Amino acid sequence: MNQTKYVREPVVAGYFYPDNPVELTRLLDELFTKNPHGPGRKPVVNRERIRGVVGYISPHAGYIYSGPVAAHAYLSLAETGLPETIIIIGTNHTGLGSLVSIYPGGKWITPLGELIVDSELGERISKYSELAELDTDAHLDEHSVEVQLPFIQYVYGNRVKILPIVVGLHTVETAQDLARAIKKSIDETNRDVVIIASSDFNHYEPYEVTKRKDLEAIDYIIKFDTEGFYRVIVEKHITICGPGGIMTLIEYTKLIGGEKKKAELLKYANSGDTSNYRNGVVGYASIKFFIEK
């Protein structure tokens, strides 16, 4: 397979985030340092690689809405140093492509430059998963992975590889299958990997309703109760758009962390906080998954 032929151009630059690199960098600066819902300081990459952080949940809406919340995840990520590869598990908003779609190789482009895809790791995951396939169609117009990339570049430049995965089948069994395949592939390659599960939380209900629903779902996430999380979002109609990635991160952390697994809510807010329009809001959370020493 000729990996160099795959080049994924940005599709939501100028819409979800600025398409001008100077404006984009300025906005990212402000999300970290000046926005009242951001962390209040710029990320500084630790010179030493501190292992133990498994991954994060990070939102993927327009930066003016969800960017301050995402900044909390990336500030924390920077403090762990530089990993080899960041797996970004997005959600399939378009219906295109395979049920679990791994981008085959090549590079992704944003206004801040290029990021190389870890094709070897992707091929192994597709080999060991019963559902995942190497596929570009699901990524053509999908924003959930793309929106994470300028944050990654703001922190690391082009020094890290990425592996975009888009999930279209959001079940516990799918998450377990993908988590097992990721673990086996990382074990074989000895990759130093962090996972980003790209997801927004409840959509387009009043502020207090969304906050109540989201915090109930987050409680199951923090407890690593994948089945409970899936059940509550179905029964309570909590319209989280990336539950497959979230459940995969939960299951993967359970596989490698055992009794030492931990999860921490870094920041919760919704678009009612960031835009002051509270009649129909979208929820956002940054959640850290790690293994306690």
TrEMBL record:
It holds the Pfam family Memo. CDD domains: MEMO_like. InterPro entries: MEMO1_fam. It comes from the Archaea. Belongs to the MEMO1 family. NCBIfam families: AmmeMemoSam_B (TIGR04336), PRK00782.1 (NF001987). This is MEMO1 family protein ENT92_00985. It comes from Staphylothermus marinus.
